[in-house]
Amino acid sequence: MAKEEPPSISKDLQELQRKLSLLIESIQNNSEPPRISLFSNPRVSELGSLSSQVVALMKSPVGQYLDRHPFVALTLLVFAAMSAVPVGFFLLLVVLTFLVAFVGVILLEGLIISVGGLSLLCVLCGLGFVSLIISGTIIVSYMVVSSLVNYWFSPRSFTQQNSSGDCQLAMKSTDLEGLYQE
User: Fold this and answer.
1) CB atoms within 10 A of CB 90
2) Euclidean distance between CA atoms 104 and 134, whole angstroms
3) What residues form the membrane-spanning segments (predicted)?
4) How many angstroms separate the CA atoms of 50 and 46, rounded?
5) Interatomic CA distance for residues 99 and 108, integer angstroms
């Protein structure tokens, strides 16, 4: 007793296969993907516009500069991630003081925004310095680990073995004995 698929399912599969082939073709041609809605969820279709924005950013002079300078890109990414919370608190402070200004405390608003602005400036300068240090630490760690991995797993020539089959360490110890005899 084999169940046969209704004709609507095969039509749906053919439509899905057509959409998938269009998407693969656009990826292979390195062009903007077509606006195909595979699902009825509008949030899924928003991902297509996000990828076109990323492509547009990477084609801009800023994107090309960041592509050529990954340390600067990493520093900007760390700075943006770390400064989101202080900027959010500052914007909350501005909104709250704006509401207080409607109540009638205009002089207090200017003072609080000035103090908050100076505080934000100090925090962002500190975060910029910290993000530079973190980015530098990440880059140096990457270089050290990469060098160690290349050193540990690089092919070494064993052509300098002596006639008795001892390792290079034995050759070095005999060279040191020759130094002491002179």
Assistant:
1) 19
2) 45
3) 76-108, 120-145
4) 6
5) 12
Helix (H) or strand (E) holding 51: helix 42-59
Pairwise CA distance, residues 136 & 46, whole Å = 35
Model confidence pLDDT, tens digit, residues 21-54? 787 777 767 655 555 544 455 554 555 566 788 7
Residues of the chain above pLDDT 90, percent: 28
- Model confidence over 146-168: pLDDT tens digits? 999 998 987 765 444 444 555 55
Contact 69, 75 (CB under 8 A): no
With CA atoms as reference, report the closest residue to 67 among 19, 108, 164, 76.
Answer: 76
Strand, coil or helix: 154 = coil
For residue 116 the two structure tokens come to 């908050």
Alpha helical stretches, state H, the chain = 7-28, 42-59, 61-68, 70-103, 106-153, 168-181
Tokens of residue 131, six digits: 């993000």
